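Please go through this protein, sequence plus structure tokens, and consider how the sequence yields the tokens. Keep your notes short.
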Amino acid sequence: MQVKEDSQIIKAASKGYNYNYASLADIAKAGKTIPKMRIKPTDNGDYIEYLDSDGEWQIGAKIVIPDMANSNDAQKYGAAVTYARRVTAQLALSLVCSDDDKVETHSEDDAKANEKRNSTRMNFDNIKERLDKLNTISEVNAFAKEVSAIYQNPTDKQRYTIKTMFDIRREEITVSRSTHARD
């Protein structure tokens, strides 16, 4: 995976199902080129793959069918594919999107339950800003423990986004060290 030098935070501008999110259109409006994607069936479920800058297909997000009240199977699958494509684009482009993060919320009752479960909102902008200032893997790991202690019940999406942010920073540090070692 090629690490992007300047990860960018894309602001959530789209709305739907009582939550805000950064759509593929929002990402494109921010000046990013959305990679070509396709669905890859596997024994462990369907995944979104994306074409990287080297012309190689890379694995992206798994397509997970949500439990959506008052929706038929086609709507559920369509929502899952759309969501997986957005997450894959974020991964492929090293983006962090400031989603309101209520993807599982499709009713007022669900919204209240989700809000109660996630009473502490993740501030991705602050986490990213602090991560960018860390220069060693041990500092990143210590910060990861701190974030885990603060946000004890993250949603799957929050967990995935945080893991991706920390993995990207660790890789940036590793690549930076190996580049400096060669100089």
Notes: The CA atoms of residues 7 and 94 lie 5 Å apart. The chain is about 45% helix and 20% strand.
